[in-house]
Amino acid sequence: MLVNNLVITYPLHLSHYKKYIVDNRNKGEDYRSKLFDGALHSFFDTSAWWYFVLLCVGSLLAMYVQSELILTDEVYYNTLGEQLTIERIKEVLDAQRKYVWIGYVLVPLMIVIQAFLITLCLNVGVILLDWKITFRKMYGMVIKSSITFLLYKLAIIFVLLMVDLDKVEDMMKADKFSLLSLMGQNSVPKWMYYPFQTVNVFEIILLCC
After folding, report:
1. Helix axes of 86-98 and 100-129: crossing angle, nearest 10 degrees
2. What residues form DSSP beta bridges with 178?
3. Are 75 and 165 in contact (CB under 8 A)?
4. Bridge partner residues of 200 (DSSP)
5. CB 66 within 8 A of CB 160
6. Phi, psi dihedral angles at 178 (to 5 degrees)
7. Please, are residues 66 and 58 in contact by the beta-carbon 8 Å criterion?
8. I need a surface site. Which of 17, 103, 138, 155 has the fewest CB within 10 A?
9. CA-to-CA distance for 36 and 58, rounded, in angstroms?
């Protein structure tokens, strides 16, 4: 009798269990979908000014770390030692330190100009397609999307901090996120090094999204 009950009820329990798994899976997918939609709405609803401030702070931080901790005097001496005398290299470094503040001041201006030029190019397509979107709104979206480039810059800075640089040229080898690094230098002609070096994984992800 017990065996008969087990034989009868087992398929029922199995069907309920399968239904339970499917329901929980659907709930999990719905939750992830709502979470993604919420994050996406939060991203676009946040004021572009906050992203602009974040871009400025992150870019200034990256510039400071690169100039003070990565491109040290030793790296410059190793790079220019065969071309210039030690006294001349010292003069170049002193002049660089004297006017380094100009680079920091120009960071916000460069972000504004870069975002403006990108928006200008996008606006041509908007006009041709007759889309109803204002230049200001599109400019804000470009500012927000520029966070991708900041993440790439900070990732490169982090990698450079983990390796020992002897010369400035070693920075190219340390870039693990470029298309050149992914494909390998041996599979790319030397005259194509720079174009492949300028394309990185973060830009590809941005274009795909």
Report:
1. 60
2. 200
3. yes
4. 178
5. yes
6. -85, 160
7. no
8. 17
9. 25
Number of Cβ within 10 Å of residue 119's Cβ equals 19
3-state secondary structure the chain: CHHHHHHHHHHHHHHHHHHHHHHHHHHHHHHHHHHHHHHHHHHHHCCHHHHHHHHHHHHHHHHHHHHHHHCCHHHHHHHHCCCCCHHHHHHHHHHHHHCHHHHHHHHHHHHHHHHHHHHHHHHHHHHHHCCCCCHHHHHHHHHHHCHHHHHHHHHHHHHHHHCCCCCCCHHHHHCCCEHHHHHCHHHCCHHHHHHHHHCEHHHHHHHHC
Query: What is the amino acid identity at position 138?
Result: M
Two structure tokens written together for 44: 């676009």
Averaged pLDDT, groups of 10, the chain, 209 residues long: 43 49 53 55 74 94 89 84 83 86 92 93 87 88 87 84 79 69 72 71 62
Phi/psi region, residue 130 (left: phi>0; alpha: psi -120 to 50; beta: rest), is left
